[in-house]
Every structure is written in structure tokens, then in C-alpha cells.
């Protein structure tokens, strides 16, 4: 019983870790795109 529970916890933990990494990378890309967009807008106004 404890082995199954441990395996389940491991799977959930791994899935969460992957989701966390994906979210971080996605967030970074979104911020970078936003930054580039803002820079291009600033260059247009100057």
C-alpha cells in the first residue's frame, strides 16, 4: 500500500515540477516579448 502511495506522490511531484518549469519559461518568454514590444513602441515615439 505504501509503495503505491509513494509512487503516486512521485508522479504528482514530477508532474508539478514539469508544470512549474514550463510556467516559468513561458512567463519569461511572455515578459521578453512584452519588453521587446515596449522598446519598439518607445523607438517609434522617439
Could you describe the 3D structure shown?
The protein is mainly α. The protein has a domain at 20-46. Helix content is 96%, strand content 0%. The protein has one helix at 2-45.
Summing up helix and strand content along with how strands pair, one would put the structural category as mainly alpha
Give helix % range.
over 70%
- Give the topology string: H per helix, E per strand: H
Q: Number of helical runs?
A: 1
Let me know the largest β-sheet: none
Our measurement of the CA-to-CA distance between the termini, rounded to an integer number of angstroms, reads 67 Å
Count the strands? 0
Rounded radius of gyration (Å): 20 Å
Beta percentage is under 5%
Regions with little confidence, pLDDT below 50 for 5+ residues: none
Overall shape: rod-shaped
Kindly report the average pLDDT value: 92
Amino acid at each position: 500500500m505504501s509503495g503505491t502511495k509513494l509512487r503516486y506522490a512521485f508522479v504528482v511531484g514530477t508532474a508539478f515540477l514539469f508544470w512549474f518549469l514550463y510556467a516559468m519559461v513561458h512567463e519569461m518568454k511572455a515578459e521578453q516579448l512584452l519588453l521587446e514590444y515596449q522598446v519598439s513602441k518607445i523607438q517609434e515615439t522617439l
